[in-house]
Amino acid sequence: MPDAILRIALPSPLRRLFDYRAPPGVPRSALQPGARLRVPFGRRELIGILIEVTDHSEVPAGKLKPALQLLDAQSPLPPALFKLCLWTAQYYQHSLGDTLSWALPVLLRQGEPAEVRQERFWHLAEGAQLDDPRLSRAPRQREALQTIAQHPHGVAQQLLGQLQLNKDSLGLLHEKGLVRIEIRRHAASERHLNWLAEPELPLNPEQRAAAEAIRTGFGRFNAFLLAGVTGSGKTEVYLQLIRETLEAGKQALVLIPEINLGPQTLARFERRFNARIALLHSGVNDRERLDAWLAARDGEADIIIGTRSALFTPMQRPGLIIIDEEHDASYKQQEGLRYHARDLAVVRAHQDNIPILLGSATPSMESLHNAHSGRYAMLHLHQRAGGAQQPRFLRLDVKSRPLDSGISAPMQQAIAQTLAAGQQVLVFLNRRGFAPTLLCHDCGWLSECPRCDARMTVHQRSGELRCHHCGHVERQPSNCPTCNNVDLRPVGAGTERAEERLGILFPQVPVLRVDRDSTSRKEAMTTLFNTVQRGEPCILVGTQMLAKGHHFPRVTLVAILDADGGLFSADFRASERMAQLIVQVAGRAGRAEEPGKVIIQSHLADHPLLVQLTEQGYFAFAEQALSERRSAGLPPFCHLALLRAEAHKPGQAEGFLDEACSEAELLLNELKLSGIELLGPVPAPMERRAGRYRAQLLVQANARAPLHRLLGSWMLALEQMPSGRAVRWSLDVDPIDLF
Ligand code: ADP
Ligand code: ZN
Ligand code: ZN
Predict the structure, then answer these.
(1) Which of 213, 447, 642, 681 is the most exposed place for a label (fewest CB within 10 A)?
(2) How far apart (Å, rounded) are the C-alpha atoms in residues 298 and 495?
(3) 726 and 686 both lie in a single domain
């Protein structure tokens, strides 16, 4: 019998499998597809996944290396998840091995056993006395022993930090025989008769209608778009549908945007259910992530909540997928495997034959289009659940008005009036830092980034210039680097400057800033929200971090300082994003008694899209934007793929893309494909970034199928192209950012 040949997917960008012989001494029968193997690769070792075992290889037998070690007796990856990864790799034109490695928890990629970990638990030893005389001079050990004694089921190792238990003290207690160690698994969650830990809210008629419609779609694939204004009670609908899913003995997967990860969101799920909730998000460490993944796979977790990559969590009994804030850009991964978790979630629901619910106050154009064409059933919630009214919108034309740190005089008056009435103000400006540029008034020097075609932002508080594109940091100069003059002026305004100015204008109230710079620490955010909840007059200044996931019932004025970026931009999606942000920010404000007011400063106050949005609302805006996209032949009415390249030398990336373009033209002829246009190559809008010159080639197609036929052959050809070796290149299927 010929030697078994193992075809293995490796975490490499090359879109092919690699052949190995079996590890010495491992019989063919032990080699299950899906199992992980450690293999030699060049001078390194990699961990790959066995795709199939065959008898034949194109590699000459003498060159075939044996794999080093078989890591799994069985595939850690259930077949359904493997199928999803296969689909993902094909659709995004990405190597299967690399796709699998994005989909798997880090520790599995590193070879950790794919089993729920046995954990160490600390218990009080039999007969141990809390006042043991040996501890009279060891207060820390005494305290530790007391803490342990308070936990009759033992203290899990992972909780030691939280309980401020010190490992050394425990070690000493163990030596004295006062504590004992038990190694066991966490208890699996029990089946519950009553899944509810708190009563549900009675649904209002709109919520009930939505929940009923979705319920009739249970048990098989159905996609729903729940379009509900902020505060309309979408989450309550999710919670009740999840309860029904649990009652049916199934699991629910909930994806939320990174930025919504407030403890408030999670606490709401935890308060509601007697259920094991597995969390997979950026705040969870690798070990916890693997445990959550395994608990979901083995059916021990009932609800799985996570951000983008949680989409790849296996479930033993999948029942429902929910994508909250489905329009959110954080669902699209912008590096490596450039997948869109929302789109893949729909594919997954289809593969698993379960319902999927996409929710948003401001649905994406893509999802609205899918609803219009009947692929998704659309459900509306028009009213705020608590009875609060929708805010009123006012456009404030600031053409030729002086701006004082970005704030016009009428805006200042509106803020003053609101504070005088004892209410709170939210000032929104989607730009961090003090000012986007530092300018020498004498010679015109600008704070350009040495590595990018961009200006460095002034961060006054830290005395730095920072490039928001590449992360480059310099000390803020006191003299002009060119002419040595001291008259350096910050131009324009960011949140830091607005905060400073508002603090001077309104010294009697607190001014709280919320952006990535101010809220790097979790507690800072909590303190801030507590201040706001107390309800005294104050001003909140912030970026889009303010736009998500929180309710500020006492805010009655939302001041949007700059809506122009969304109206000027060359990116056709900029207006959609602007509209979503405005509506989301506006949705934070107002309560039953005092409807909110939203004032939008703009130099383009009469722009038709802005008028539509403010006078007729998001859905009217979306209709207008969709019809513009249709006539311009833009997504969702066409399909895009973007080939990006970057290189250290100018021209090099474009050279590669020129060749790629000719190759694509050849293939279009050869494969007789029509309805596909190649646009470019052109330099990227910001040509130089982080020291590299960037260019791009856009492929635009009327239909998905021919586009994917082209991409398949094209990528194989590009991998062979010598000019591709000198540049960094990548393909982005369905790009959401053309820059
Ligand atoms: P959304 O997810 O649409 O922003 P939420 O579910 O967070 O809305 O609901 C907004 C507020 O309204 C919450 O405080 C919630 O407790 C409350 N709420 C939701 N549904 C109801 C209901 N049926 N009756 C009373 N209050 C409700
Ligand atoms: Zn100068
Ligand atoms: Zn830079």
Answers:
(1) 213
(2) 46
(3) yes
Q: Is the CB of 703 inside a 6 Å radius of any atom of ligand 1?
A: no
Nearest CA to ligand 1 atom 4: 231
Distance CA(320)–CA(355), nearest Å, equals 5
Give, for ligand 1, the residue of 208, 235, 237 to mutate: max count of ligand atoms closer than 8 Å to Cβ.
235
**Amino acid sitting at position 383:** Q
- Confidence band of 587 (pLDDT split at 50, 70, 90): confident
Q: From ligand 2's centre to the CA of 464, what distance in Å?
A: 18
pTM of the complete model: 0.88
Range of the structural domain that residue 705 is part of: 639-733
pLDDT value for 118 = 67
pLDDT, tens digit (0-9, with 9 covering 90-100), for 93-124: 999 999 999 999 999 999 988 887 667 788 89
Residue 421 lies inside a defined structural domain of this protein: yes
Pocket lining: 322 vs ligand 1, CB cutoff 6 Å: no
- List pLDDT tens digits, range 456-487: 999 998 999 999 999 999 999 999 999 999 99
Q: Domain tally for the chain?
A: 5
Question: Is ligand 1 within 6 A of the CB of residue 387?
Answer: no
- Rounded to the nearest angstrom, the distance between the alpha carbon of 201 and the centre of ligand 1 is 8
**Of 109, 135, 150, which residue is a domain's last?**
109
